[in-house]
Write a structure and sequence with these properties.
Structural class: mainly beta
Strand order of the largest sheet: 3-40-38-37
Number of strands: 40
CATH topology of the largest domain: Neuraminidase
Number of helices: 1
CATH class of the largest domain: Mainly Beta
Helix content: under 10%
Oligomer: single chain
Shape: globular
Distance between the termini: 28 Å
Largest sheet: 4 strands, antiparallel
């Protein structure tokens, strides 16, 4: 009831202050952590792949689209989005006709279309990671389970015909990897192959996970099998630097069996650049890394820290200068359980937590490397708002940042939201 009166007051203020959007345009307002935020009528544009933007979009959060009400639709998204020609594409781990996940799209009219419902069996099941737009113009993704051996699959969605068309590209057999939680990235320059990790499989005597390569023709090969001492159970999507060197994390393994940060070349030369240790609080990383404009790698752990609720950490690409930057406390002014990827916006790093915030349903937070300050930006869970974001943010062509929540929204089955700081 308290939130209802707050929202009523905000609505009345917005009605009176019709100029709050600037430029005399029609504006709407929303209640955010910092108070009143306005949705202006202007739109911005992307200024580069680093995530920095010179857009004049007003600082705001709004629910963009609630996910399908019916159980056979696209429900409960846990991955982020990609955009192609103004249409957003994503995956859900569950939902669909067999409740084993979907690939879906949202067009500019906010219509959700289920492109493929995973059926399990020889088909894939439970896609966990975001899709990637490869240079062949297709969307590529992975499923954790399904395939003829239930070890997961690689699939693609062709956009060339105007009607998205799903096809299975590769089935994992355990010896060549198993159960990929992470997505794919594409090589640099003339290297058009895609690279990813599997959380298990590889060396038949160890079954600790792999780094693999798959060509656009679907030919897969393992370029590295984890041995335990160099990490095990990688669950995140790899990132790469401008030279094509790739970086990732493993949830377990390493000197203390609490995970590692590693680098790996496209030829499979792997090096541990940091082994996690419970004594340094951050342990068991599951999310992808961010290579920021200051040249440092930033990442999160969903556990560890003084309160056991996760951390933010940074280190150089060679493993030097490692430090824990923040230990989440889970209070109303802080988050807990950060799973999503990080993004850099105008030299400030933004991320999401699945829980914590004023409603304990997750929040968007910022971290300023120049000051070391972590600040809550938006708490989820107000009325038809989304709840429990598992994924991070992506930059849309309109200059806003888009993300997903697994719960909440008008149908209580998750949302797509847009945000600008």
């Amino acid at each position: 009831m308290k939130h209802f009166y707050k929202l009523l007051i905000v609505t009345l203020i917005c009605f009176i202050l019709t100029s709050c959007g600037g430029g005399g345009g029609k504006a709407a307002c929303t209640l955010a952590v910092g108070g009143l935020a306005c949705l202006g009528s202007s739109s911005g544009s992307s200024s580069g792949s680093s995530g920095s933007s010179s857009s004049s979009v007003t600082s705001t959060y709004t629910t963009y689209k609630s996910m399908n009400a019916e159980s056979t639709g696209a429900t409960g998204p846990q991955s982020g989005l990609v955009e192609v020609n103004g249409i957003f594409y994503g995956t859900t781990e569950s939902g669909g006709s067999a409740n084993l996940g979907t690939v879906f799209s949202i067009n500019s009219s906010l219509q959700i279309t289920v492109i493929h419902s995973f059926a399990g069996g020889t088909d894939g099941a439970n896609p966990f990671a975001s899709l990637v737009v490869a240079r062949d113009g297709n969307l590529w993704g992975t499923t954790v389970n399904g395939g003829s051996n239930n070890y997961g699959t690689v699939f693609k969605v062709s956009l060339s015909s105007g009607t998205p068309t799903y096809s299975q590209v590769h089935v994992f057999l355990s010896t060549n990897g198993a159960n990929p939680y992470g997505g794919l990235i594409q090589g640099t320059g003339t290297d058009t192959a895609l690279y990813g990790t599997t959380s298990a499989g590889g060396d038949s005597n160890l079954d600790l996970g792999t780094v693999y390569k798959i060509t656009l023709l679907g030919q897969e090969s393992v370029i590295h099998s984890f041995l335990g001492s160099d990490g095990s159970n990688p669950q995140s999507t790899l990132i790469k630097d401008s030279n094509g060197m790739m970086y990732g994390t493993t949830k377990t393994g390493g000197a203390s069996d609490t995970g590692t940060v590693f680098s790996v070349s496209t030829s499979g030369v792997e090096n541990v650049i940091h082994p996690f240790d419970a004594d340094t609080h951050a342990i068991n990383p599951e999310s992808s890394l961010l290579l920021a404009s200051d040249g440092q790698l930033y990442g999160t752990t969903s556990t560890g820290g003084q309160y056991g609720l996760g951390t933010i950490y940074s280190l150089s690409t060679s493993g030097l200068n490692y430090q824990v930057l923040h230990e989440f406390a889970g209070a109303t002014s802080d988050g807990s359980k950060p799973y999503g990827n990080l993004v850099e916006i105008n030299s400030v790093i933004y991320g999401t937590t699945q829980l914590g915030g004023s409603n304990d349903l997750g929040l968007i937070y910022s971290y300023k490397p120049t000051t070391g300050v972590v600040s809550p930006v938006y708490s989820f869970g107000l009325l038809s708002d989304g709840a429990q974001p598992f994924a991070g943010l992506m930059l849309g062509s309109d200059g806003y940042y888009y993300g997903t929540t697994t719960l909440g929204g008008a149908n209580s089955k998750g949302t797509v939201y847009k945000f600008y700081p």
